[in-house]
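Notebook entry, structure prediction.
Reason for the run: the old model in the group folder had no record of what sequence produced it. Starting over properly, with the input documented here first.
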Amino acid sequence: MYNKYMEKLHNPVLLSEVLATMEPHPGERYLDLTAGYGGHASEFLDVTQNYKGACLVDRDGFAIDYLKSIFSSEVEIKHESFYNAMLQLYESGETFDLILADFGVSSPQLDKGERGFSFRYDAPLDMRMDRRQKLTASDVINKYSEKDLAELFIKYGEESPGRAAMFARIIVHHRPIKTTRELAELIRVRWHGYSKTHPATKIFQAVRIEVNDELGEIERALPILPKLMNKNGRVGIITFHSLEDRLVKDYFREASSHGEESELRIITKKPIVAGNEEIAINPRSRSAKLRVAERN
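New structure, fully documented this time:
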């Protein structure tokens, strides 16, 4: 069961669109690969009412503690990366009717200054989604070579080569850098140009992706999806930047391109995005894209 009276810590993006496109039905098995604070999961389980058949996954210990506080012991909760959880479920022969993954950073992660995800707070450079792992943002910023940093900012931050090289040089010349605010201010003060967003935004994105191996997780996980889906099962994936979305789009296209032998059938020919009303209430939904496919 789900405790509806607990305070909602996180507004799930594209909630109505996800429900309308994936069409949960009573009795169906639900797998949430990035359950976070249960926003999507609670709505799906309200429909399916299949708590014993549900599995909620997250690698963030804070999210796991919260999920355990609002869902009964009937619901299986896994403190794992979604890739590791998928391997475990596959090896156990588990299959589901509904699979959802929301690859965004949750609001509680951003709002807990000590987690080091955001430069809105002055905090140690951390950025680990799973605090059991060793690699931190401080390791990346203070130990990577200038060349490796520049390549990282180009690859994961989608920075221009010129800006990436400049920021890498600045960082290396001002080490050690201890906090998020120190890093952000270092970049801001030395950036002479116009930018709609803070000039450190893409740098923080690149470092976060590196620390958590976010794109690697997605690349490894996508081919396992059909193996965890029942016939006519639906999978929905929400991405927040072009690097993630490109991986999902390309995989869906490949998995649906073999005629009758295709593993998947694409339901959303174009990604679904948030409407103006949701964006006004939840600005982080502005960059969200939802793609849904069905198991043949």
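Summary: The two ends are 31 Å apart (CA to CA).
The old model has been moved to the deprecated folder.
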